[in-house]
């Protein structure tokens, strides 16, 4: 499975190609506006509102800018039906792409499934470990096509906790927790896997999904990401 490196989400070095290409007045106005939005890009309706250019002029100019390879259309996971454009020298921000868990605007369920299974396997060997330790172990195995950040693994671990596949506990600093600082959040298998017990478990009320969800800023009542469609929120309500 092919995935882009996390660094690809960062802003690229500005391109000077636009300066050497002849542009019509409308094309220049639109290009300057689009480029000014950097990695957030801009929706076509906002372009029309900010430039006051007629619809047909905007449509024609956007096509010309694409042919000249100065702009590109990108997917906005929050509004997939809207045409969103960005200057070619930028890569979409995480707010647009959804971050590491999305590919071309679609949730990469296969990648998430692989990471979940890998985290459980690694944790079954380590018995108890922090997100940092699990992340290091996974990257050393080379099981994943690209290196995973600690933040990514932490998000997967939180999902596994909500799935009741593992437990989130705090280190007591003694016994099997001796190598982990006292009070540090760590993870272990659940009783159903034969690895339960140990440090104090963090209750569900203290771990409401919304409080740790990396997509909380994108969650809206009627959006693509919403409480109505959130399986983890539903599970928490049933607790």
From TrEMBL:
This is DNA-directed RNA polymerase III subunit RPC6. It comes from Vitis rotundifolia. It holds the Pfam family RNA_pol_Rpc34. GO terms for cellular component: cytoplasm; nucleoplasm; RNA polymerase III complex. It is found in: Nucleus. GO terms for biological process: transcription by RNA polymerase III. The keyword Nucleus applies. Belongs to the eukaryotic RPC34/RPC39 RNA polymerase subunit family. DNA-dependent RNA polymerase catalyzes the transcription of DNA into RNA using the four ribonucleoside triphosphates as substrates. Specific peripheric component of RNA polymerase III which synthesizes small RNAs, such as 5S rRNA and tRNAs. Keywords: DNA-directed RNA polymerase, Nucleus, Transcription. Gene3D superfamilies: Winged helix-like DNA-binding domain superfamily/Winged helix DNA-binding domain. Its main location: nucleus.
